[in-house]
Design goal:
Pectate Lyase C-like, mainly beta, nine-stranded parallel beta sheet, 195 residues, 0% helix, elongated
C-alpha cells in the first residue's frame, strides 16, 4: 500500500516496496518497525512524521525536507540519502548508514552520538559544530566534508579517506585513525613532512 493513500496515519511492521514520489508532502504519519525497499522520494517534505526502528534498503531519498519530524534507530542499507538536511528534524537519534551515499547532507549543530557511516560516500557533508562522539566512520570517503568545532571524541575513522580535519579546531580525544591517511591531520600544523 502507498503511504499517501493509507487512511490510517500509523504503520506498524509494514513493508513498503517500490514507492516513487516526487515533490509531495507526507504529513503526520508514524512508522514503527517498518521496511522501505527500493523506494524513491525526490524533493519530498516529511512534515511532523515519526520513524522508529525502521529500515531503508536500496532507496533513493534526494533533497528531502524533514520538517519537525523524528527519527529513532533508523538503518539505511545500500541507499542514496543525498542533500538531506538533518538540522530540520525535531529529533534524531541512532542513525546507521551502510554502503550509502549521503553526499551534500547537513548534520551541523546536531548532537548525534554513535552515528554509524560504514563504507559510505560522504562528499561535501556539513558536520560543523556537531557532537559526533563515539561514532563509527570506518571505510568512508569524506571528500570536501566540513569538520569545524566538531566533537569527534572516541570516533573511529579507521580506513576512512579524504577527511580534512583541523586538529586545532576539533575535539579528537581518543579518536581512532589508520595510516597512511592519518598523516593528513598534520596539515593544519604548518609543518614540513619529509619521506
Amino acid at each position: 500500500m502507498d503511504i499517501l493513500s493509507k487512511t490510517n496515519d500509523s504503520s506498524y511492521k509494514e513493508t513498503f516496496s517500490g514507492l516513487v514520489h516526487s515533490n509531495v508532502k507526507i504529513q503526520n504519519k508514524e512508522f514503527e518497525n517498518c521496511v522501505f525497499d527500493k523506494c524513491t522520494f525526490i524533493e519530498c517534505t516529511f512534515d511532523a512524521c515519526k520513524f522508529m526502528d525502521c529500515t531503508f534498503s536500496n532507496c533513493s531519498i534526494s533533497a528531502a525536507k524533514p520538517y519537525n519530524s523524528q527519527f529513532f534507530n533508523i538503518i539505511f542499507n545500500d541507499s542514496k540519502i543525498m542533500g538531506f538536511d538533518w538540522t530540520k528534524t525535531k529529533t534524531v537519534r541512532e542513525l546507521t548508514f551502510k554502503k550509502c551515499d549521503i553526499s551534500y547532507s547537513n548534520f551541523s549543530y546536531i548532537k548525534l552520538h554513535s552515528l554509524k557511516l560504514i563504507e559510505c560516500i560522504a562528499k561535501e557533508v556539513n558536520f560543523n559544530e556537531s557532537d559526533l562522539s563515539e561514532s563509527i566512520f570506518t571505510q568512508t570517503d569524506f571528500a570536501q566534508s566540513i569538520f569545524s568545532n566538531t566533537n569527534l571524541t572516541k570516533t573511529d575513522f579507521r580506513k576512512a579517506i579524504n577527511y580534512g580535519i583541523d586538529i586545532k579546531f576539533n575535539t579528537l580525544k581518543k579518536a581512532k585513525f589508520s595510516l597512511p591517511e592519518a598523516t593528513s591531520l598534520l596539515r593544519s600544523l604548518d609543518i614540513v613532512l619529509e619521506v
